[in-house]
Amino acid sequence: MARPEPSALIEVSSEAGRKIGGIYTVIRSKAALLHKKFGENYLLIGFLDDRCNEDVKFEEPAGKLKEIFDELAKEGITCKYGKWLYGDNSNIICVDARQAGERIVEYLAEGRGVQHDKQANYFKYLLWKHFGIDSLMEKSWDFTENVVWGMGVGMLIERLFAAGLFDKKATVLQFHEWISGAALLYCKMKGLGLATVFTTHATVLGRTLAAAGIDVYSEAARANAPISLNVAYNNRCEGKHQLEAAAAKECTVFTTVSETVAEEVKYILGRRADVITVNGIEFGNSKEGRRAHDLSRYARGELQQFMEACFISYYQMRYDNALFVYISGRYEFTNKGFDIFINALGRLNARLKKQKDQERKIFAFIFAPSSVRGPKISVIKNYLLLDKINEILKELPETKDKPYVNMQTAISLLKGEVRVDLENMAKGFIKDGDRPHINCYDLSYQNDAIINACVAAGLNNEKSNVVKVIFYPTYMKPNDGLMNLNYYDVIAAMDVGVFPSRYEPFGYTPVEAAVKMDIAITSDMTGFGRFIMKKIKKKNCGIKVIKMAGRTSDQAAEELSRELERIYRLPPKKLEKEKESAYKMMKHIEWKKVIANYYRAYSMAIEKSLKVEK
For residue range 392-403, what is the model confidence (pLDDT) as tens digits? Predict the structure, then answer.
């Protein structure tokens, strides 16, 4: 007998219509399919702040929805309705409940009598009373903020069903991550009898332990029982952990994003996943892929010019034939494998320095947002001056059709006054120290882990180094004050993306790299890595999975350095062939194939909730 199919979906995430992390990509990229399936019965609920203005076109609500918003406003909960521009113009409601959390309320607490306190603390008390979630010592701002937001979302959901805007028997509510856990638990606490799906993308405790150097996946594989709650207390994340565990326990259907996380949640949260909802991507045809690749030529030129601006006042080198590699992600030095990447580059640089032919360089970028004061003035000035000179060179008959090696070579092709003028302009390049900086922004703190690791590995950008490193410690966007390009344009201009993560439940960064026709290197400690390993049919296909499970960091770094050297030595045509094969491999995770896992979870949720109702 076929399972009942839902006719409506409400999807709840703090990253819906608000770009702050990887879950944004998950939700945005599958929105078109869900919108097509459910039509106007597909609603997203997100977190309202200024970032929503970049993604959402807000409009005035009408009818019952306006009445609900007006009611909630009286309780300190602000709701705004609109269309998510980057999510296929799907309906979205963004919620801000912070004012409600600050209100002083009176309530009776068991064993403590009448309390006069902030409503945020009353919400925490309800979570303790109904679900045993202990947040007495939880002082982190994000826990309180997300509990308050979740409760506000729960109140919104309660009113949507009470007003008859959604049919309880035909609607599934999808909640993402512990951040939305309070909303799910509010619905449970109020006995709304809804079909709920809770998806864990990465457990709070698992991420915390991994950051401390613990191999969570190996521990989970060996464990015969769930982890002790004391571990969460010892790591000071007991509130978030218990909220996440309660949401996993109380939901109708529980899902995770990979087999890796499925092992983890049994150990960390004490419940098996009902369905593995693998993350997917939007995937175009080969013609679209080639077009995107061709468009990257502009970005490649900008990238070469940026690198030249960083190095031009110190020494001369070629920029046209370099291998461009990068790593990107949250600044989690060990979790994301920045240390392994830097170690590997150091080993590779030491080997290449011993060889005779050092003309071809490797430019390695580290994109890890941190706290910055602003771009280095010397880099900005050199970048602007180089741009002026290159604009002139592009118009001169002697240089406009010649392959660009570097500025000095281009000027050497000229004669007469124009050459003298450009040479005089070039005297304006400025130095800021003895050698080129690793970081192109001024940091607002001392002793940065990435810079220290680069120096320790011999990656100090001295002239004799074959591997040159640039640390770009801010989000790449058109107004970042330096390159002024968005992240996806920049990675489209690269050759290799490297992501040797120790803890990554799925991992979109290597997927994004491959979609932009970069060779993608990941690890067998990631959900994506373990998934794609089963799909790789031939050696050197453009996706490489570094073996890290059960190995030391040095062993992983050595394997990575050898793989990067292999790529470095590929002839141009073979390099392009591997980049194209990486792109083709992404067909395995296009949404139109893997969205079926979500649909199965939704049908299961409806079926289970109807059985409970009977």
Answer: 999 999 998 888
Half-sphere exposure of 572 (CA within 13 A, CB side): 4
Cβ neighbours of residue 449 closer than 8 Å, sequence gap 6 or more: 333, 338
pLDDT tens digits for range 413-461: 999 999 999 999 999 999 999 999 999 999 999 999 999 999 999 999 9
pLDDT digits (tens, 9 = 90+) for 290-307: 555 566 778 898 999 999
Domains of the chain with bracketed CATH: 8-281+592-613 (3.40.50.2000), 286-375+431-588 (3.40.50.2000)
**Cα–Cα dist 125/111, whole Å:** 12
- 104, 117 contact by CB (below 8 A): yes
Nearest 5°: CA angle at 304, between 303 and 310?
90
pTM for the complete prediction?
0.85
Question: What tokens were used for 163?
Answer: 């007003």
Q: DSSP of 439-506, one letter per residue?
A: BSEEESSSS-HHHHHHHHTT-S--TT-SEEEEEE-S---TTSSSS---HHHHHHT-SEEE---SSBSS
* Lookup result for tokens 């309202």: 48
